[in-house]
Amino acid sequence: MILVALWDLGPAAREALGAAGRLGDEIAVALLGDPASAEEAGAYGATQAFVFDGDFAGSGGEAAIAALTELARELGARAVLLPRDDRTAEIAPRLAERLGGTAVTQVVAIELTDGRPVWTRSAYGGKALVEVTAAAEPVVATLTRGAFAPAEATGGTATVSTRSAPAVDGAVELLEREAPSTGASLEDAKVIVSGGAGLGAAEAFRELEELAGLLGGAVGASLAAVDAGWAPADRQVGLTGKVVSPDVYFAIGISGASQHLAGIGGAKAVVAVNTDADAPIFASARLGVVMDCHTFIRSMIEQLRSAT
Ligand SMILES: Cc1cc2nc3c(=O)[nH]c(=O)nc-3n(C[C@H](O)[C@H](O)[C@H](O)COP(=O)(O)OP(=O)(O)OC[C@H]3O[C@@H](n4cnc5c(N)ncnc54)[C@H](O)[C@@H]3O)c2cc1C
Fold first, then answer.
1. Is the distance from the beta carbon of residue 253 to the nearest atom of ligand 1 less than 6 Å?
2. Which distant-in-sequence residues (6+ apart) come within 8 Å of 199 by Cβ?
């Protein structure tokens, strides 16, 4: 049995179900969020769907880990697959430890060799690929967005059952809740306009938002821009931020540190804008513009406004 842990049945979830299909085993889904998705899971290859009723947000991942530990043991799961995001990066290694298995993060491919899964994961900030076979099962794997073809709708059905989230009182004290930033999702965006330290001030990010809106895209940021308080943390792209795969990625006032590049390897084309012609970002760019970023952003906005 392969257990796929999901919050909803959006694009990331369908990719995870596509990846699960590569393992040639029965698929069960644990839904820790939107219960409305449960019935639909059957159409994408799951035979069982378990809907967990309760609050998974306030326990630092403990409630999700407890629920998945119990279910994976009960099902005798060989693998637990999770779409890679901030939440699952936090819970996957802890879940693997609880299950006595192996965590394999940032998985980009899965092949079966003699019936045994070989997991390919990216390493060294995306500069290398490593093939891994697990010493101990179950494998708890986080899947890189865009790496797996989404499961096709087959019209199948899953048996749906509801469970209560286990109580994990006192495991973590919730000090503050921060609402996620608004705007288009970075993971699904076809165009991303990202700003870095070169933007110089928070106000420049408002212009970036306008430019992204005109291009029908999403705003991203480097760690330096997030650290400066100009952009929310959930907009950070890179090794410790989001891994993105847009058609076009604008890197504006971003130097191109390896940790930033680790997040944009999946972009089909990078357009870099930088005043320093020797900035490393140009080595990764399809199109390079040596220009002041404010001049570039304003000129793009003007031209796009006059074109609409
Ligand atoms: C463990 C670890 C994890 C990390 N994870 C991440 C991560 O996930 N994401 C990430 O982004 N970074 C990450 N970093 C930080 C990373 O190493 C860099 O420090 C960061 O990416 C630099 O951000 P930046 O390019 O915006 O800033 P800088 O490196 O300061 O570059 C600013 C650029 O703007 C240009 N510039 C200046 N003025 C202008 C102007 N007016 N117009 C146009 N260009 C201008 C400059 O020439 C320069 O190239 C991580 C670091 C570590 C150690």
1. yes
2. 205, 208, 225, 230, 252, 253, 293, 294
Tell me which of 86, 186, 223, 300 to substitute to probe ligand 1's pocket, judged by most ligand atoms within 8 Å of the beta carbon.
223
CA dihedral 215, 252, 125, 138 (to 10 degrees): -30
Q: What fold is seen in the domain 2-164?
A: Rossmann fold (3.40.50)
Q: How far is the CA of 238 from the CAs of 28, 107, 150, 196, 235, in angstroms?
A: 31, 16, 23, 12, 10
pTM of the model: 0.74
Residue 210 Cα to ligand 1 midpoint, Å, equals 22
Average pLDDT for the chain: 92
Q: How far, in Å, is the centroid of ligand 1 from the Cα of 178?
A: 25
Domain residue spans in the chain? 2-164, 191-307
Q: Name the closest-CA residue to atom 31, ligand 1.
A: 255
In tens, the pLDDT along 89-137 reads: 889 999 999 999 999 999 999 999 998 999 999 887 777 899 999 999 9
Which atom of ligand 1 is the closest one to the Cα of 263? 8
Q: Do domains 2-164 and 191-307 have the same CATH topology?
A: yes
* CB 257 less than 6 A from any atom of ligand 1: yes
Distance (Å) from CA 13 to ligand 1 centroid: 31
Q: Does domain 191-307 have CATH number 3.30.70.360?
A: no
User: Do 22 and 5 form a contact (C-beta atoms < 8 A)?
Assistant: no
Q: How far apart are CA 206 and CA 230, in angstroms?
A: 9
Nearest residue by C-alpha to atom 7 in ligand 1:
238
DSSP secondary structure code for residue 259 in this structure = H
